[in-house]
Amino acid sequence: MVNMKKTGFGSLVMIAGILAGSASALAASVLNSDSTAQTLVVTEGSSKQQVTVQPGETVSICPSGCFVTFPNGDREALTGNEAITILNGGGTHK
To answer: Signal peptide location in the record (predicted)?
Structure first.
């Protein structure tokens, strides 16, 4: 029988990789179908940031959930697993 036990730095790297992969898998994706760049206001907890999405670009946001304000003023609560398309300045779920 072969002992395959891993310890030390290798285990930490493996765990970090698994956690990083699972966080990105839970992020909401936003595709801009408009012909102009659109800026979203993303609010996570007490932090607000503007995220500009170029035409045809897809970005990942909100790995832990957030509120998003779209350019047309619509506001949406995201949990982090949605696929959103921006069309005419508003967001629609796929």
So the answer is: 1-27
Tokens describing residue 53: 């999405």
pLDDT digits (tens, 9 = 90+) for 56-76: 999 999 998 999 999 999 999
Sign of the alpha-carbon torsion through 25, 28, 33, 36: negative
Domain residue spans of the chain: 28-93
* Tokens of residue 8, six digits: 């030390």
SS3 81: coil
* Contact between residue 87 and residue 32 where contact means Cβ atoms under 8 Å apart: no
Report, as an integer, the average pLDDT of 16-21.
Answer: 42
The residue ranges of DSSP E strands in 36-89, in sequence order, are: 38-44, 47-53, 58-61, 66-69, 75-78, 83-87
- What are the pLDDT digits (tens) for 41-50? 999 999 999 9
